[in-house]
Amino acid sequence: MNAITAKEPILIIGAGAIGGTLAASLTAAGEHVVAVDGNAAHVEAIRANGLVVSGVRPLHVRVEAHHPSTLVGAFNRVILAVKAKDTEAALATAQAHLAPDGWVLPLQNGLGMLAVAAAVGQERTVGAVIAIGAHYKVPGQLALLGYGETHVGELDGVARPRTHEAVALLSHLQPAELTGNILGHAWGKLVLAAIYSATALADRDVPALYDDPEACAILAAAGSEVVTVALAERAQLEPADGLEPMRLLDRDSLAFGPDDVWSGQRAAWRRYANTRTGIWRDLAELHRPTEVNAMLAPVVAAARRHAIATPCLDQLLALVRRAEAHEIALGSATFMQLAPRTNSRDGKPATAPF
Predict the structure, then answer these.
(1) How many helices (H) and strands (E) does the chain have?
(2) Which of 133, 163, 180 is the endpoint of a domain?
(3) Element containing residue 149 per DSSP (H, E)
(4) Domain containing 239: what range?
(5) At what angle do helices 112-120 and 87-97 cross, to 10 degrees?
(6) Distances from the Cα of 7 to the Cαs of 26, 175, 221, 347, in angstroms?
């Protein structure tokens, strides 16, 4: 294992799938990382044995790890890498330990970057959106199973020196790109989040679902509702890990075939050794609450403000809540409860999205 360096430390709040693999990659590159996590067993394992990453880039590094209550000091660079449902608690840690001239980079699903900007100021917030195949295994151990894409940008679209620094730091995990439309990428990833939430209910491999016309019709219904809300919010949607969200509103693109709306996602999943999402792992293996409500409830709230109906998202959120409470089992019967909101014969939403 490496020795901890004397460089100015980077604080990473959340040492799970994303934060932990980033911490390991930065440490391997010679950066001094301080990781803080609310999982006491995970922190103790990292302290005792280092942080172990298996998969496409095996790493075993020594990382300074803390519980939130034992963390001391102020940091100029803070990366917030917790699940969307844990943003509020993580923000309290970030605010308590952010240096006066420091910045926070939220690396999360959903629109957490807006919550961060509201808490610490837009002038101290750098946005980022990541897609990557990684998951938490057991305390002290993570799996990195495939590379996706990372985009970094300022909320006002104007790149600054810190933006370029953030791109360089995140590129130690996988190549990162500078963007002038980070909110467009966040909304694009939210479209994918709705789709992935639906795949978790099916209890089937994601690539298999993309080869099933009936399943694709359900997934299109979930994703297209997010697209409609994003457009009402005046977002300029960007692609997310091979998915072009606007194609979900194009009936020709929804016609099932090799060049349909799902073709980019099929290619993306061929890069990953895993075949299911982190949402599925939370429900089926870890038996813990997901971040689905934290990601998608704000989308539904925005829809209400614009008088947009979201029947598929409403049902999706209700089913995920029941699955989290162990009231229903994952599988076809649960997944198909979304089906009445689609016309499965042609893979198109039953009603036009506008």
Answers:
(1) 14, 12
(2) 180
(3) strand 141-153
(4) 184-349
(5) 30
(6) 12, 23, 49, 54
State both tokens at 281: 């792992």
3-class DSSP assignment, residue 219: helix
Q: Helix, strand, coil: what percent of the chain each, to 5?
A: 45, 20, 35
Structure tokens at 141: 């151990």
Looking at the predicted structure, is the pLDDT value of residue 341 above 50?
A: no
> Do 175 and 205 sit in the same domain of this protein?
no
Helix H or strand E encompassing 133: strand 127-138
76 in Cβ contact with 126 (< 8 Å) = no
Q: Are 204 and 264 within one domain?
A: yes
Stated as kind and residue range, the H or E segment containing 170 is helix 161-170
pTM to 2 decimal places = 0.92
Does a structural domain hold residue 51?
A: yes
* CB 221 within 8 Å of CB 342: yes
Count of structural domains, the chain:
2
Q: What is the pLDDT of residues 138-162, one digit of tens each?
A: 999 999 999 999 999 999 999 999 9
Look up residue 193 and give its two tokens: 């989040």
Task: Find the length of the chain.
Answer: 354
Say which CATH number the domain at 249 has.
1.10.1040.10
| Residues 254 and 337 occupy one common structural domain | yes
Q: How many CA atoms lie within 13 A of 58 on its CB side?
A: 2
How far is Cα 90 from Cα 298, in angstroms, rounded to an integer?
Answer: 19
Chain CA centroid to CA 177, Å: 17
Percent with pLDDT over 70 in the chain:
94
Does any domain span residue 1? no
Query: Per DSSP, what are the bridge partners of residue 143?
Result: 54, 135
DSSP state of 351: S
Q: How far apart are CA 255 and CA 34, in angstroms?
A: 49
